[in-house]
Amino acid sequence: xxxxxxRRILLEGxxxxxxxxxxxxxxxxxxxxxGLRERAVILHIVSRIVEPNQEVVWDSEESRVTIPGRPxxxxxxxxxxxxxxxxxxxxxxxxxxxxxxxxQIWINIPNEGISYHTTMQTIPLELMEQIYFFPLGSMKADxxxxxxxxxxxxxxxxxxxxxxxxxxAGENPVPQ
Length: 176
What we know:
Radius of gyration: 17 Å
Shape: elongated
Number of domains: 1
Structural class: mainly beta
């Protein structure tokens, strides 16, 4: 089985489950603790599976309120694949941000066993700048589907967090 076919099989069964810094309770805390609201940011996360022809076959959007130093986690779970990533924003002294992406990837390859990989990247960014994170690596071959995660930070302006992509249970199945 070629790596491209393996990756396609792995990507077809993915569902999105967003976990980690779910800040429903922290939204209340933002109002109760002095200075917390001013430090808070909203992390917008768009996860996609993109086919070799650049067709998006699955996507999910989520927005989370967090504060610098507190991670926001997502988990992509498929039949033979688990990708767990935490994104932690940090504010630099010059009011710019750094986003630390820490990922763990488990892949069950038939007849070979489970493969485990970790990744850690530090990504400088400014508010409202869109960046991309590729948990399985960047697209290296034109004939392979890939997972991409688009991220953007914006200041928290006191509004409620948005949840446009996941249902109430936090899962959004991939179409078959």
